[in-house]
Amino acid sequence: MKRWIHALSGVPWARTTVRIMGERQIAAFERMCEVTGRKPYELASDIILDELWLAGSTPGLKRQARDNRRWRQDRMLGLGD
Prior knowledge:
The chain is mostly helical and 81 residues long. It has one domain. The protein is built from three helices and two strands. Strands 1-2 form a two-stranded antiparallel sheet. Strand 1 and strand 2 form a beta hairpin. The radius of gyration is 14 Å and the shape is globular. It starts with a strand and ends in a 5-residue tail after the last helix. The mean pLDDT is 84.
């Protein structure tokens, strides 16, 4: 995994690849993308952010993960935009 620094904000970031295995899991992921309106890489990033939040991180990361999770849940329940 390679680290980068965002040119404008100076925030470090990293890129990774996510592999989803199993027909049911792929179908569930596709459906989650469809329902939330997220692109696959966006949804994968959200899920990773949730896991980092559970592991205990900074208050800023926790807030971002919480906001993303609420947004996804609202979209999946049909309450979002």
